[in-house]
Write a structure and sequence with these properties.
288 residues; mainly beta; 2 domains
Length: 288
Amino acid sequence: MKMESKKMKMGVLLIAVLMISLLGVYLYAGDQRSGMVAEASQTYLLVNPAFAQSATTGTTFLEEEAGMSIYVNIGQSIDLSKAKTVYKTIEKETSDYIVGSLSLPNLPETDDVHCFVHKDGWIVVYYLKAEPISKIIDWSYYSPTAGLTKTKLQVGLEKMALALGATVTGAKYYNFQYPYADKWMIVIESREDEGEDTFNIKIPSEFTIYERSWSHYGSGWYTDWYSYGYAIFRINTTEIDSISKSSVTRYGQLTITQLEPNMFYTVGTYSKLNSPHRVAIVLAYKES
């Protein structure tokens, strides 16, 4: 699937400055064990869909409900009765479009995505405005070498398109909650064993940040009387999240004071267990 993605790999002891014209943040990332830089940032465009610009039926509904979204026009009319069979639940149905929820493989019901299908060929998969952008991260599609290869929204889009016999080449991201945002970025740090890895991040003050959110994955071993191990996500010395159960993903939003512009912050993932643990910072922003 072709996305508007730019990736930067960083080498040994390299202090990587991601150019303002490209990414909008300065990022310094390091592996505390050996000085090796382990991860890459990924940046995507946010592109307003043509049907929203022309006020096609259903646009108002999406503007009121949808947050982070991925969309495509498959280039042909859609048989809504066929699309209807893919839905887990139907939330709204008209003669022009259907909106409902789609389940995702190996994920709980709380991760179900919403899907808008229009007879004119449009498919939009999204989460609600109240949900942080970082919810779209599916850690099962992540590796330290390849980065994040799919999001939950992309998986949902492919599920609907496959049932309709269509492809999703040219799919784009858009955030209906932040129509003026033109980019979003994921910065990930991970470690496969016990210990801590960090990266430092600084957001330039001349950029407008619409959302700061995070996703944290890790494992812990806990009983009512004893906690053997846990995974912790920190910004500087402040603990943002702690996981004490096995293979858990959590996400949330950060306030401006937790990640202020024009200041350096150290973001870290730490675990007492010899198992993978990962953290991602997600930004939606506009270059001034």
